[in-house]
Sequence to fold (147 residues):
Amino acid sequence: MKKGTKIYAVIDTNVIVSALISKHPGTAPLTVLANVFSGDITPVFNDEIIEEYQVVLSREKFHLNPQDIDTALSAITDYGLNLERTPDVDESFPDPKDLVFYEVKMSKDDAYLVTGNTKHFPKKPFVVTPREMVHILAKQEPEINIG
Fold:
């Protein structure tokens, strides 16, 4: 991928949770979220996904600051792409709640689906872990020729 190529990604809720609860600045989920803020990743979502983010991130057990939740969700909705689901996907899912993420991804051909739970999704090249997304982003960096 060349620098400047837009990366579109549906980001699973577990990645957002991991980023916001992380105590270490270099974690892959936090790097993915930081790349949403910087504009290197264009998030792809729909209203159901935003609603799930809001419900899950607001759970007491995560002890997240409501302002941090609002900031993250605003970045996703302000800089992202709100798309409809592509129904009739011929795949099975252990958790039916994951279907919306897959169907929204399928509405954007060149998008990735970033998840910490790849076993919950069909094995496809566009279903990647946060660490794999960080590697994809690194390939965007211009090469430095010394010599």
The chain has a mean pLDDT of 91. Residues 93 and 121 are 6 Å apart (CA to CA). The longest helix spans residues 66-79.
